[in-house]
Q: What sequence folds into this?
DNA sequence: GATGAATGAGGATTCATTCAT
DNA sequence: AATGAATGAATCCTCATTCAT
């Protein structure tokens, strides 16, 4: 079985290389989230990142062409994390009101659990043409429109409805990161947004308080 | 006109100088608003400011001790503008719902008329420590609480109510600056926020649509 | 005369500034020629140049965007120097053979007198798309063609004639810089090129040896 | 074909390895010639070489201890090529004029056929310390002097004669690489050089046009 | 042997601020 | 007051070379 051995070796080596590369990259991204949460978004230099990750200057550039590229990658990682939490829940219901509530609650919950990631998310929304937020935005847009068609929402301007939703989420995340918030803060925010979108208060509060399966990770 | 020139008093000269000084300073601030609104707080360099204002490097430092000082002055200018526009209207009513609606409508209107100032505003609000946002925040806080006491609002968490208000305003200004918006956008936003705060839809829309005295400038 | 004083002051200041700027720029170029002659073309870094010129790092970048830009400017300076020497002499004759001889002799003489400058010239010819050499090349081209028409030259391929002229000049400058050469080296080179271009040996040597007005500087 | 594979002797395997080793080494040198011919000696990085050769970084260092070693090997390869083409022809005649003509024609022809090698040659000649140019230089020197003794040449300065020969060859190769040239370009150049060295035009052109055995490779 | 991740010294570049004119 | 040349600390970026797998 010599050939197999040979080929396995090749594969194995490739895989090890692959793993190491992936690990270093992941470490840099992880470290970036930490450092940003500690020292803010603008202050940290490439030097700070590599010092925290304990890699050489050149190693950084083996993975990212610039500071910005690292930050974007980090934001992408956060987006993936959020997606992984929200998408399974979206499979459970097609009620736009519920979906909006789920997204809002999950985003805020995640930001409370991982303030670094929430912070980065919020900082990236204005920046980068919204690479991160775009996906979120598209999802929200879709639910706002179908909710209107189904009579769940009663907004009079899509632009305004979008501003309400995105603005409130953003500011709520910001609050959740920097101040202590009540345990049901995510639900409270979700309910207010639904009310703002035209749902009766009682129904909004009911939908916003529906039990949610716990995240696995 | 030589005689007139000669006969100019010291005072007159001082005043002319004063005027010029004021004008250059104002020009620098104006230019700063533009540049910041386009490129954010951190990106622009002093070179960008002096190039846009077409003054020499040294001149800049005759007016501002540092880059930060210009930024603060620019923010202060926006605060003054806001004060001049909104405070007089606040004298007209003590209904918290009306006051919140007035503030929201005025902020957005002003941002449409002076996108540079709106842009700076939007950049400052998240910093939440900026003079503008603090004052605004206090005002909003006060109205939210008294509105609750008077039964006009029915929020369940002050933090959440604040996030809804501030977040929606911020995002609405952002939209108003960068996209065309319907003429009644300010009112629409105001109505949605009031609904979110627990007012019945009909009443929210009525209050948000009350006629407003035109701004002077 | 206050106004006049004021305006003279303005002019004077502008002029002083202008002078200073010009002087610093010239100093950097001068220093570049020196440093290159001492340490070669490739070795010196920007640090070496600014140390030799005794200016700050930032000052360098006030004048040149990159190391290459300095080198190109230095080469341009050399080209100007040569032009200043050759052009007046070109006014004295329209005989293409004489003009070719003058150009060759002057380039080599200059390189013997200022080896730094000659060296830079030779190094820049392959580089920079020939910004430096292009002018020279055009001049030579013109004289080669008109010399042919007038029956002074008898080459059979313009390309080949150009290769002979430019190649020989380049290599002669190189030799003149790095080895001791006989006093009449410039004339010898000129004569050989004219022979190569098809002039009879005797006539070539006569034209190449015609007395030349001494340079002023 | 398993049996055959199995029955392969150690020697055979060694030879295959040897071949592969030789091939990879040759590929690196070949690629180096290309890259150097295009971008010069200094510009290309090891990354450029390994990317063009499509080998891993470590593989490069299995064959060459340093970047310089590759450059030297590449130059050696060109030297070998030149030797193989020109030396056999030198056995055919002892007339210095013919030998100079042969060398010139062969160098240019070879550069047209193998532009990469010509490019490297041209880059090396000015360095004059390169193995190729030294050998060539010695050969040319010898022929120039014996040609003078035999009355075939009539130069007045060996230095100048050398500059004419080497400079013209260099520039002619450069032209032949980068522009289309007439078919008899090598002969034209050879004739001009011989004329420049003092041979009568008619005789120079005759010698330069003598038929040459075709190269084998 | 082949691989490619990691290294870090060497150099390039920016930009807020000072200061003589 | 206005000017703009000069400064240099802080930071970025490249690339030849090493070495564990």
A:
């Amino acid at each position: 079985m010599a050939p197999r051995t040979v080929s396995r070796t090749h594969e194995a080596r490739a895989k090890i290389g692959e793993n190491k590369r992936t690990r270093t990259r992941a470490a840099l991204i992880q470290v970036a989230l930490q450092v940003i949460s500690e020292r803010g978004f603008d202050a940290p230099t490439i030097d700070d990142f590599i010092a925290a990750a304990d890699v050489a200057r050149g190693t950084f550039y083996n993975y990212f062409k610039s500071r910005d590229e690292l930050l974007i990658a980090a934001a992408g990682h956060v987006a993936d994390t959020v997606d992984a939490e929200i998408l399974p829940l979206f499979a459970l219901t097609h009620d736009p009101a519920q979906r909006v509530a789920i997204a809002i609650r999950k985003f805020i919950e995640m930001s409370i659990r991982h303030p670094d990631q929430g912070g980065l998310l919020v900082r990236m929304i204005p920046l980068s043409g919204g690479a991160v937020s775009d996906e979120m935005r598209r999802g929200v847009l879709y639910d706002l429109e179908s909710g209107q068609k189904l009579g769940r929402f009663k907004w009079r301007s899509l632009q305004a409805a979008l501003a309400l939703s995105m603005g409130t989420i953003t500011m709520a995340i910001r609050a959740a990161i920097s101040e202590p918030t009540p345990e049901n803060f995510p639900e409270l925010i979700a309910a207010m947004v639904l009310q703002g979108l035209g749902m009766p208060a009682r129904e909004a509060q009911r939908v916003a308080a529906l039990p949610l399966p716990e995240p696995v990770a």
